[in-house]
Amino acid sequence: MGQGNIEAAFSVVPEGSVTTPKGFKAGGLHCGLKKTTRHDLGAIVCEVPATAAGVYTTNVFQAAPIQVTRESIGAGGVLRAVIVNSGNANACTGKQGDADAYEMRSGFAAAIGVAPEHVAVASTGVIGENLKMDRVRSGIAELPSKLADSYEAADDFCQAILTTDLVKKEVCVSVTVNGRTVHIAGASKGSGMIHPNMATMLGFVTTDAAIGSEALHSLLRQATDLTFNMITVDGDTSTNDMLVAMASGLAGNEELTAEHPDWAAFAAGLRYVCEVLAKAIARDGEGATKLVEVQVRGAVSDEAAKAIAKTVIGSSLVKSAVFGADANWGRIIAAVGRAGQPVNPETVDIRLGDIVTLQQSRPIGFDEDAALEYLKGDTVVIHVDLHMGSGAATAWGCDLTYDYVRINAAYRT
Protein backbone atom coordinates (compact mmCIF):
# COMPACT_ATOMS: atom_id res chain seq x y z
CA MET A 1 0.00 0.00 0.00
CA GLY A 2 1.54 3.32 -1.07
CA GLN A 3 1.85 6.27 1.28
CA GLY A 4 -1.06 8.07 -0.39
CA ASN A 5 -3.30 5.01 -0.01
CA ILE A 6 -2.19 4.59 3.61
CA GLU A 7 -3.25 8.13 4.42
CA ALA A 8 -6.56 7.63 2.60
CA ALA A 9 -7.37 4.63 4.78
CA PHE A 10 -8.06 6.73 7.87
CA SER A 11 -8.89 10.25 9.03
CA VAL A 12 -7.13 12.24 11.73
CA VAL A 13 -9.46 13.25 14.57
CA PRO A 14 -8.71 16.81 15.75
CA GLU A 15 -8.67 17.07 19.54
CA GLY A 16 -8.87 13.28 19.74
CA SER A 17 -7.28 11.50 22.70
CA VAL A 18 -6.93 8.12 24.40
CA THR A 19 -10.46 8.60 25.74
CA THR A 20 -11.99 9.06 22.27
CA PRO A 21 -12.37 5.30 21.58
CA LYS A 22 -15.51 3.95 23.23
CA GLY A 23 -15.14 2.54 26.72
CA PHE A 24 -12.04 4.39 27.91
CA LYS A 25 -11.45 6.86 30.72
CA ALA A 26 -8.20 8.45 31.84
CA GLY A 27 -6.86 10.81 34.46
CA GLY A 28 -3.83 12.07 36.29
CA LEU A 29 -2.70 13.91 39.39
CA HIS A 30 0.32 15.00 41.43
CA CYS A 31 1.11 12.64 44.29
CA GLY A 32 4.56 13.93 45.19
CA LEU A 33 7.03 11.79 43.26
CA LYS A 34 8.29 14.81 41.34
CA LYS A 35 9.97 17.77 42.98
CA THR A 36 7.70 20.08 41.01
CA THR A 37 3.90 20.15 41.19
CA ARG A 38 3.51 18.56 37.75
CA HIS A 39 1.29 15.47 37.57
CA ASP A 40 3.19 12.25 38.25
CA LEU A 41 0.55 9.51 38.54
CA GLY A 42 -1.96 8.62 35.85
CA ALA A 43 -4.14 5.83 34.53
CA ILE A 44 -6.19 4.63 31.58
CA VAL A 45 -9.17 2.44 32.43
CA CYS A 46 -11.50 0.47 30.17
CA GLU A 47 -15.09 -0.16 31.28
CA VAL A 48 -14.99 -3.68 29.80
CA PRO A 49 -12.23 -6.31 29.58
CA ALA A 50 -10.00 -5.07 26.75
CA THR A 51 -7.92 -7.17 24.42
CA ALA A 52 -4.31 -6.26 25.18
CA ALA A 53 -0.85 -6.52 23.67
CA GLY A 54 2.55 -5.19 24.68
CA VAL A 55 6.04 -4.59 23.33
CA TYR A 56 8.93 -4.06 25.74
CA THR A 57 12.51 -2.84 26.04
CA THR A 58 15.36 -5.05 24.85
CA ASN A 59 17.61 -3.83 27.68
CA VAL A 60 18.80 -6.76 29.84
CA PHE A 61 18.11 -4.73 32.98
CA GLN A 62 14.34 -4.54 32.80
CA ALA A 63 12.49 -2.48 35.39
CA ALA A 64 10.06 -4.11 37.83
CA PRO A 65 6.95 -2.73 36.06
CA ILE A 66 7.98 -4.55 32.87
CA GLN A 67 7.81 -7.88 34.71
CA VAL A 68 4.40 -7.03 36.17
CA THR A 69 2.92 -5.92 32.86
CA ARG A 70 4.30 -8.93 30.97
CA GLU A 71 2.66 -11.13 33.59
CA SER A 72 -0.67 -9.29 33.40
CA ILE A 73 -0.94 -9.37 29.62
CA GLY A 74 0.44 -12.90 29.47
CA ALA A 75 -2.27 -14.14 31.82
CA GLY A 76 -4.86 -14.03 29.05
CA GLY A 77 -4.28 -11.06 26.78
CA VAL A 78 -6.82 -8.95 28.67
CA LEU A 79 -6.48 -5.68 30.59
CA ARG A 80 -8.88 -3.34 32.32
CA ALA A 81 -6.35 -0.63 33.19
CA VAL A 82 -2.80 0.63 33.11
CA ILE A 83 -1.37 2.76 35.92
CA VAL A 84 1.71 4.90 35.28
CA ASN A 85 4.00 6.96 37.44
CA SER A 86 6.72 9.40 36.42
CA GLY A 87 9.57 10.78 38.51
CA ASN A 88 10.90 7.32 39.42
CA ALA A 89 11.71 4.40 37.08
CA ASN A 90 11.54 1.71 39.78
CA ALA A 91 14.44 0.07 37.93
CA CYS A 92 17.44 -1.75 39.49
CA THR A 93 15.63 -1.63 42.84
CA GLY A 94 15.77 -5.35 43.70
CA LYS A 95 13.08 -7.25 45.55
CA GLN A 96 11.67 -4.07 47.07
CA GLY A 97 11.13 -2.66 43.59
CA ASP A 98 9.32 -5.84 42.55
CA ALA A 99 7.11 -5.66 45.62
CA ASP A 100 6.33 -2.00 44.98
CA ALA A 101 5.32 -2.65 41.35
CA TYR A 102 3.03 -5.49 42.42
CA GLU A 103 1.56 -3.28 45.13
CA MET A 104 0.82 -0.59 42.53
CA ARG A 105 -1.00 -3.23 40.50
CA SER A 106 -3.02 -4.70 43.35
CA GLY A 107 -3.72 -1.32 44.95
CA PHE A 108 -5.12 0.24 41.81
CA ALA A 109 -7.03 -2.94 40.95
CA ALA A 110 -8.76 -2.76 44.32
CA ALA A 111 -9.43 0.95 43.92
CA ILE A 112 -11.34 0.42 40.65
CA GLY A 113 -12.77 -3.01 41.47
CA VAL A 114 -11.00 -5.28 38.98
CA ALA A 115 -8.72 -8.31 39.23
CA PRO A 116 -5.02 -7.49 39.80
CA GLU A 117 -3.98 -9.48 36.73
CA HIS A 118 -6.07 -7.11 34.61
CA VAL A 119 -3.89 -4.11 35.50
CA ALA A 120 -0.61 -3.15 33.79
CA VAL A 121 2.02 -0.99 35.47
CA ALA A 122 4.53 1.43 33.93
CA SER A 123 7.12 3.72 35.50
CA THR A 124 9.56 6.32 34.19
CA GLY A 125 12.16 8.56 35.78
CA VAL A 126 15.34 8.14 37.80
CA ILE A 127 16.90 4.65 37.91
CA GLY A 128 18.04 3.05 41.16
CA GLU A 129 15.83 4.81 43.69
CA ASN A 130 12.97 3.20 45.57
CA LEU A 131 9.47 4.51 45.04
CA LYS A 132 8.00 6.65 47.80
CA MET A 133 5.13 4.22 48.26
CA ASP A 134 3.33 6.28 50.89
CA ARG A 135 2.82 8.95 48.24
CA VAL A 136 1.89 6.38 45.59
CA ARG A 137 -0.73 4.87 47.90
CA SER A 138 -2.27 8.28 48.54
CA GLY A 139 -2.34 8.97 44.82
CA ILE A 140 -3.94 5.63 44.02
CA ALA A 141 -6.69 6.31 46.55
CA GLU A 142 -7.49 9.63 44.86
CA LEU A 143 -6.95 8.62 41.23
CA PRO A 144 -10.33 6.91 40.55
CA SER A 145 -12.12 10.21 41.22
CA LYS A 146 -10.02 11.85 38.50
CA LEU A 147 -10.99 9.36 35.78
CA ALA A 148 -13.23 10.64 33.00
CA ASP A 149 -13.79 10.22 29.27
CA SER A 150 -13.15 13.91 28.58
CA TYR A 151 -10.29 15.51 26.67
CA GLU A 152 -9.27 17.32 29.85
CA ALA A 153 -8.90 14.03 31.73
CA ALA A 154 -6.85 12.61 28.86
CA ASP A 155 -4.66 15.70 29.02
CA ASP A 156 -4.09 15.09 32.74
CA PHE A 157 -2.92 11.57 31.88
CA CYS A 158 -0.57 12.87 29.19
CA GLN A 159 0.94 15.34 31.63
CA ALA A 160 1.35 12.66 34.31
CA ILE A 161 3.67 10.50 32.18
CA LEU A 162 6.17 13.23 31.22
CA THR A 163 9.72 13.50 32.59
CA THR A 164 12.13 15.80 30.71
CA ASP A 165 9.60 16.06 27.88
CA LEU A 166 8.71 19.62 26.95
CA VAL A 167 5.38 18.75 25.33
CA LYS A 168 2.72 16.06 25.57
CA LYS A 169 2.39 13.63 22.69
CA GLU A 170 -1.00 12.35 21.51
CA VAL A 171 -2.88 11.52 18.31
CA CYS A 172 -6.19 9.95 17.26
CA VAL A 173 -7.54 8.63 13.96
CA SER A 174 -10.77 7.07 12.75
CA VAL A 175 -11.06 4.10 10.40
CA THR A 176 -14.14 2.57 8.80
CA VAL A 177 -14.48 -1.15 9.58
CA ASN A 178 -17.62 -3.03 8.45
CA GLY A 179 -19.20 0.36 7.83
CA ARG A 180 -18.67 1.38 11.46
CA THR A 181 -16.37 4.11 12.76
CA VAL A 182 -13.45 2.71 14.71
CA HIS A 183 -11.07 4.97 16.62
CA ILE A 184 -7.38 4.39 17.32
CA ALA A 185 -5.64 6.79 19.70
CA GLY A 186 -2.31 7.02 21.41
CA ALA A 187 -0.28 8.91 23.99
CA SER A 188 3.42 8.63 24.67
CA LYS A 189 6.36 10.08 26.52
CA GLY A 190 10.01 10.16 25.64
CA SER A 191 12.78 12.70 25.36
CA GLY A 192 16.07 11.15 26.47
CA MET A 193 17.56 7.63 26.52
CA ILE A 194 15.99 7.14 23.10
CA HIS A 195 17.37 4.50 20.77
CA PRO A 196 16.00 1.89 18.34
CA ASN A 197 15.12 -1.69 19.27
CA MET A 198 12.24 -0.61 21.40
CA ALA A 199 13.04 3.06 21.57
CA THR A 200 13.16 4.51 25.05
CA MET A 201 9.64 5.57 25.70
CA LEU A 202 6.30 4.75 27.23
CA GLY A 203 3.43 4.45 24.78
CA PHE A 204 -0.24 3.69 25.25
CA VAL A 205 -2.69 2.92 22.44
CA THR A 206 -6.46 2.62 22.85
CA THR A 207 -8.99 1.50 20.27
CA ASP A 208 -12.62 0.45 20.28
CA ALA A 209 -12.06 -2.09 17.50
CA ALA A 210 -12.93 -5.75 18.02
CA ILE A 211 -9.66 -7.64 17.56
CA GLY A 212 -8.00 -10.65 19.19
CA SER A 213 -4.88 -10.41 21.33
CA GLU A 214 -2.62 -12.30 18.90
CA ALA A 215 -3.78 -10.20 15.96
CA LEU A 216 -3.33 -6.99 17.95
CA HIS A 217 0.15 -8.03 19.06
CA SER A 218 1.14 -8.85 15.47
CA LEU A 219 0.03 -5.43 14.23
CA LEU A 220 1.61 -3.67 17.21
CA ARG A 221 4.95 -5.38 16.60
CA GLN A 222 4.86 -4.53 12.88
CA ALA A 223 4.01 -0.90 13.59
CA THR A 224 6.73 -0.68 16.25
CA ASP A 225 9.39 -2.01 13.88
CA LEU A 226 8.60 0.77 11.38
CA THR A 227 8.17 3.61 13.86
CA PHE A 228 9.35 3.44 17.47
CA ASN A 229 12.23 1.16 16.50
CA MET A 230 13.34 3.72 13.91
CA ILE A 231 13.97 6.69 16.21
CA THR A 232 16.98 7.75 18.23
CA VAL A 233 18.01 10.72 20.32
CA ASP A 234 21.19 9.63 22.07
CA GLY A 235 21.89 5.95 21.39
CA ASP A 236 20.81 4.76 24.85
CA THR A 237 18.08 2.16 25.34
CA SER A 238 16.26 2.45 28.66
CA THR A 239 15.27 -0.11 31.27
CA ASN A 240 11.60 0.86 31.18
CA ASP A 241 10.48 1.04 27.54
CA MET A 242 6.96 -0.20 27.04
CA LEU A 243 4.19 0.07 24.45
CA VAL A 244 0.79 -1.24 25.51
CA ALA A 245 -2.33 -1.42 23.35
CA MET A 246 -5.89 -2.01 24.61
CA ALA A 247 -8.94 -2.74 22.43
CA SER A 248 -12.41 -2.44 23.97
CA GLY A 249 -14.31 -3.96 21.02
CA LEU A 250 -17.17 -1.51 21.60
CA ALA A 251 -17.21 -0.16 18.03
CA GLY A 252 -19.31 -3.18 17.09
CA ASN A 253 -17.31 -4.37 14.09
CA GLU A 254 -16.72 -8.00 13.15
CA GLU A 255 -13.47 -9.18 14.74
CA LEU A 256 -10.46 -8.04 12.77
CA THR A 257 -8.20 -10.75 11.38
CA ALA A 258 -5.69 -10.81 8.54
CA GLU A 259 -8.50 -12.02 6.25
CA HIS A 260 -10.85 -9.14 7.13
CA PRO A 261 -11.41 -6.77 4.17
CA ASP A 262 -10.64 -3.75 6.39
CA TRP A 263 -7.52 -5.26 8.00
CA ALA A 264 -5.14 -3.14 5.89
CA ALA A 265 -7.01 0.05 6.70
CA PHE A 266 -6.90 -0.64 10.44
CA ALA A 267 -3.20 -1.58 10.22
CA ALA A 268 -2.50 1.68 8.39
CA GLY A 269 -4.29 3.68 11.06
CA LEU A 270 -2.36 1.95 13.85
CA ARG A 271 0.95 2.49 12.06
CA TYR A 272 0.12 6.18 11.57
CA VAL A 273 -0.65 6.62 15.28
CA CYS A 274 2.67 5.00 16.20
CA GLU A 275 4.58 7.05 13.62
CA VAL A 276 3.16 10.36 14.83
CA LEU A 277 4.06 9.50 18.42
CA ALA A 278 7.54 8.28 17.45
CA LYS A 279 8.31 11.44 15.48
CA ALA A 280 7.00 13.56 18.34
CA ILE A 281 9.44 11.82 20.69
CA ALA A 282 12.33 12.42 18.28
CA ARG A 283 11.37 16.08 17.83
CA ASP A 284 11.18 16.53 21.62
CA GLY A 285 14.61 14.99 22.22
CA GLU A 286 16.42 16.49 25.19
CA GLY A 287 17.83 19.86 24.15
CA ALA A 288 16.79 19.33 20.54
CA THR A 289 16.03 22.19 18.17
CA LYS A 290 15.27 20.16 15.03
CA LEU A 291 13.58 16.97 13.88
CA VAL A 292 15.92 15.05 11.59
CA GLU A 293 14.57 12.48 9.14
CA VAL A 294 16.80 10.09 7.19
CA GLN A 295 15.32 8.43 4.11
CA VAL A 296 17.34 5.60 2.61
CA ARG A 297 16.39 4.22 -0.78
CA GLY A 298 17.94 1.83 -3.28
CA ALA A 299 19.34 -0.60 -0.69
CA VAL A 300 19.64 -4.33 -1.32
CA SER A 301 16.82 -4.96 1.19
CA ASP A 302 14.54 -3.15 3.61
CA GLU A 303 16.60 -4.52 6.50
CA ALA A 304 19.79 -3.10 5.01
CA ALA A 305 18.07 0.23 4.51
CA LYS A 306 16.91 0.23 8.15
CA ALA A 307 20.42 -0.44 9.42
CA ILE A 308 21.88 2.36 7.32
CA ALA A 309 19.17 4.84 8.25
CA LYS A 310 19.64 4.05 11.96
CA THR A 311 23.41 4.48 11.66
CA VAL A 312 23.11 7.88 9.99
CA ILE A 313 20.42 9.16 12.37
CA GLY A 314 22.45 7.97 15.37
CA SER A 315 25.75 9.54 14.32
CA SER A 316 26.83 12.17 16.84
CA LEU A 317 28.83 13.88 14.10
CA VAL A 318 25.84 14.07 11.77
CA LYS A 319 23.61 15.29 14.60
CA SER A 320 26.16 17.95 15.58
CA ALA A 321 26.51 19.14 11.99
CA VAL A 322 22.74 19.54 11.71
CA PHE A 323 22.70 21.56 14.94
CA GLY A 324 25.43 23.83 13.53
CA ALA A 325 23.68 24.06 10.12
CA ASP A 326 26.85 22.67 8.52
CA ALA A 327 26.21 20.90 5.19
CA ASN A 328 28.94 18.36 5.95
CA TRP A 329 27.86 15.50 3.73
CA GLY A 330 31.16 13.71 4.47
CA ARG A 331 29.80 12.76 7.90
CA ILE A 332 26.70 11.29 6.27
CA ILE A 333 28.54 9.13 3.75
CA ALA A 334 30.98 7.99 6.46
CA ALA A 335 28.00 6.78 8.52
CA VAL A 336 26.56 5.00 5.48
CA GLY A 337 29.88 3.24 4.93
CA ARG A 338 30.19 1.94 8.52
CA ALA A 339 26.65 0.58 8.82
CA GLY A 340 27.85 -2.93 7.97
CA GLN A 341 25.55 -3.26 4.95
CA PRO A 342 26.25 -3.72 1.22
CA VAL A 343 27.08 -0.38 -0.38
CA ASN A 344 28.57 0.35 -3.78
CA PRO A 345 31.09 3.14 -3.14
CA GLU A 346 30.54 4.41 -6.71
CA THR A 347 26.75 4.90 -6.73
CA VAL A 348 25.65 6.85 -3.65
CA ASP A 349 23.56 10.03 -3.90
CA ILE A 350 22.96 12.38 -0.97
CA ARG A 351 20.49 15.27 -0.72
CA LEU A 352 19.71 17.70 2.07
CA GLY A 353 16.08 18.42 1.35
CA ASP A 354 16.17 19.29 -2.38
CA ILE A 355 19.83 20.27 -2.33
CA VAL A 356 22.03 17.64 -4.00
CA THR A 357 25.45 17.42 -2.33
CA LEU A 358 26.71 14.09 -3.68
CA GLN A 359 25.91 12.28 -6.92
CA GLN A 360 27.24 8.85 -7.84
CA SER A 361 29.59 9.19 -4.85
CA ARG A 362 31.14 12.34 -6.30
CA PRO A 363 30.80 15.83 -4.79
CA ILE A 364 29.02 18.38 -6.93
CA GLY A 365 28.85 22.11 -6.54
CA PHE A 366 25.90 23.28 -4.45
CA ASP A 367 24.73 26.56 -3.01
CA GLU A 368 26.24 26.68 0.49
CA ASP A 369 24.05 29.61 1.50
CA ALA A 370 20.91 27.73 0.44
CA ALA A 371 22.08 24.67 2.38
CA LEU A 372 22.74 26.83 5.44
CA GLU A 373 19.24 28.28 5.33
CA TYR A 374 17.70 24.83 4.87
CA LEU A 375 19.60 23.40 7.83
CA LYS A 376 18.45 26.29 10.01
CA GLY A 377 14.86 25.03 9.70
CA ASP A 378 13.11 23.00 12.40
CA THR A 379 12.86 19.89 10.18
CA VAL A 380 15.79 18.49 8.19
CA VAL A 381 15.40 15.60 5.75
CA ILE A 382 18.49 13.71 4.62
CA HIS A 383 18.03 11.58 1.49
CA VAL A 384 20.41 8.71 0.72
CA ASP A 385 20.00 6.70 -2.51
CA LEU A 386 22.32 3.70 -2.90
CA HIS A 387 21.12 2.64 -6.38
CA MET A 388 21.53 -1.05 -5.56
CA GLY A 389 18.01 -2.41 -5.12
CA SER A 390 14.47 -1.71 -3.91
CA GLY A 391 15.12 -1.64 -0.18
CA ALA A 392 13.87 1.45 1.65
CA ALA A 393 13.50 2.74 5.21
CA THR A 394 13.04 5.95 7.17
CA ALA A 395 14.48 6.84 10.57
CA TRP A 396 13.93 9.86 12.79
CA GLY A 397 16.05 11.67 15.33
CA CYS A 398 17.16 15.13 16.37
CA ASP A 399 20.18 17.36 16.49
CA LEU A 400 22.76 17.15 19.28
CA THR A 401 22.97 20.39 21.23
CA TYR A 402 24.71 21.95 24.20
CA ASP A 403 21.48 21.63 26.14
CA TYR A 404 21.51 17.84 25.86
CA VAL A 405 24.71 17.77 27.90
CA ARG A 406 23.37 20.34 30.36
CA ILE A 407 20.15 18.38 30.97
CA ASN A 408 21.85 15.03 31.43
CA ALA A 409 24.75 16.35 33.49
CA ALA A 410 22.28 17.19 36.26
CA TYR A 411 19.42 14.69 35.71
CA ARG A 412 19.39 13.48 39.34
CA THR A 413 19.97 16.90 40.89
Could you characterize what this model shows?
By secondary structure, the protein is of the alpha+beta class. The protein has twelve helices and 15 strands. The strands form two sheets. Strands 1, 2, 3, 4, 5, 6, 7, 8 and 9 form a nine-stranded mixed sheet that branches. It has a six-stranded mixed sheet with strand order 13-12-11-14-10-15. A hairpin with a 2-residue loop joins strand 12 and strand 13. Helix 3 packs parallel to helix 4, helix 6 packs across helix 7 and helix 8 crosses helix 10. The N terminus is likely disordered.
How many β strands by DSSP?
15
CATH topology grouping of the largest domain? L-amino peptidase D-ALA esterase/amidase
Which percent range fits the helix content? 25-40%
CATH secondary-structure class of the largest domain: Alpha Beta
Number of helices: 12
Mean pLDDT: 90
Q: What class, by secondary structure content?
A: alpha+beta
Number of domains: 2
Low-confidence parts: 1-5, 192-200
- How far is the N terminus from the C terminus? 49 Å
Global shape: globular
The main pleated sheet reads as: 9 strands, mixed
